[in-house]
Amino acid sequence: MSPRSLVLSAASLCTGGLAVLVYFHDSHLVLLRDHLNHPFALGVLACLLMAWAAVGLRRMWLRVVIVVLAGLGASVALFGGWVALTFASTQEAGFIDGPAPYRIRLQKSLAGLGPDTVMWLSVRRDSGLLSREWDLGCFNDDVPDDAFDSVKWTGPSSVEIRVSDGRTFPVTLDPASGRPRTTATLNC
Question: Mind telling me which residue stretches traverse the membrane in this protein (predicted)?
Fold first, then answer.
């Protein structure tokens, strides 16, 4: 095996490992969550790197087998990514500023194939590259009374989430880390 093939094989294994890690482990760091949370794209890249590494192999049958398997793997990852984007994509609905360094992020998505909308809330603690974000709540409007209505800061480390029928869900944050001590979910 040529040195180029060894380097490409190692890069492929590292990229594939990163894809598996990102798929199964959700990071609280905003930098990782927003920019590296693409397991299907990383899987396609790992397959392409493996196919490129196989070009340098001496045995023709092994080269063909690895390239075919890498092509199948890339196809599966592309299809999985397409399904994930179609049925699980979220849209930004804005931010609600709170006491520094906190703000609440609102995102919405469709609930499966139906017309229902799911509103996702998370709290972000801004601190440059080490900014962190934690889930705050999730509200599905398949029952009209459970639809998300508003969220407001009630103190330096407390939030109140209101649904359309007037119920409120108070959430307190840990003053040291900013992580919510509880979360609020309805039909998620």
Answer: 35-57, 64-85
